[in-house]
Amino acid sequence: MIEVKNLVKRYGSHLAVDHLNFRVEDGQIYGFLGPNGAGKSTTMNIMTGYIGATEGEVLIDGHDILSEPEEAKKCIGYLPEIPPLYTDMKVEEYLRFVAELKKIEKEKREACIQHAIEMTGLASVSGRLIRNLSKGFRQRVGLAQAVMGMPKIIILDEPTVGLDPKQIIEIRDLIRGLAKEHTVILSSHILSEVSEVCDHIMIISHGKLVASDTPENLTKMMDTSHRMELLIKGDGQQIRRVTDSMEEIVSVEMKNGEEEGTMAVTLNLQEHADIRERLFYAFAEARCPILMMTSSRVSLEDVFMELTADDKKARMEMEAAADQEEGTEKIAVPQAENGSGEEAPEENADDTIKGEQ
Ligand code: ADP
Ligand code: MG
């Protein structure tokens, strides 16, 4: 289990992680979802002990990542945004090197390496130079180094960025497979990516956790919450009397309208409820004129957009990514341009090796 308590990371005056609190239980796939620059990589780098936090603590199975790094790190396998691959090594050679780094006992090393190769489907390329592998296979090598030594928790930072649709599906299946034996946390800036594979979604925006639930609950909440916005002339009590009389209304939020004597009212309705006409007559009878009435359906996408809306640029990027995903064209998800000063790797456009399917 991972506990993140009151985590803060400042870069100068910039607050990249803003008092994050969450808990990760064993045996599930968690999705860390948020636009570019939201603070996902920073949080993951702190959780895995790569960088220090400004405030707060991270406990991995009860071990503090700072004061007991060895015990804590043993529980975690990490695939950072930029996989730490030595491209001049062959796959098996690199994994042997990783096994040594992870201090896996000599007698167990070979079995561990073979298990990692098997789990990530690398058998056919185990003798090849990493530099000659496609991005999809390199990502598998990154995954293999993360699972090496069978840590309880696997943390993957944007594991499908830059892959083509076929590779994305393969890596997704692989991640689902990993979850049988590990707790998995993965990050993404694409909603569908996370809702596809994760049991639990944490939405992060500007370093803050803005939602945390199962995709089912998030979707259910949105699907059933059919909302209506009204501007009504009248006082709160009169309005409440009308809304209380209709059982289709699940909840009511009210605040003073901009014009004096008016109230801005948001109604959350049961699914399929259409009470527009009844509202009209009921408010007329109560002598509270409706000045404005609109209804809207909220989707998971809307909620994600709303929760993370203040970053317009990120929003546009996500829309572009989602559009690309809908089509059958090759996806070229843009590398994170987060101005972090950590430059993205230059991918050689035609690095796909021949005959590798
Ligand atoms: P994400 O992974 O969600 O795209 P990051 O964690 O990479 O977001 O970045 C969060 C914020 O912190 C961004 O605004 C980014 O510019 C900033 N940031 C990240 N790393 C650094 C750094 N080393 N120095 C200064 N600012 C940084
Ligand atoms: Mg990132």
Describe the fold and architecture.
This protein has 357 residues and is α/β, with parallel strands linked by helices. It has two domains: 2-75 and 152-221 and 302-356, P-loop containing nucleotide triphosphate hydrolases (Rossmann fold, 3-Layer(aba) Sandwich); 224-296, Alpha-Beta Plaits (2-Layer Sandwich). The protein is 35% helix and 26% strand. It has helices at residues 40-47, 69-74, 91-101, 106-119, 135-147, 165-178, 191-197, 215-224, 236-244, 276-285, 300-307, 312-326, and strands at 2-11, 14-24, 29-33, 55-60, 63-64, 76-79, 153-156, 183-188, 200-205, 208-213, 226-233, 249-256, 262-269, 290-297. The strands form three sheets. The chain has a six-stranded mixed beta sheet with strand order 6-7-8-3-9-10, sandwiched between helices. It has a four-stranded antiparallel beta sheet with strand order 2-1-4-5. Helix 6 links the parallel strand 7 and strand 8 (183-188). Helix 4 (106-119) runs antiparallel to helix 5 (135-147). It is elongated. The relative contact order is 0.14. Mean pLDDT is 85; it is low at 327-357. Adenosine-5'-diphosphate binds at residues 11, 14, 16, 34, 36-42, 336, 338-342. Adenosine-5'-diphosphate binds next to strand 2 and helix 1.
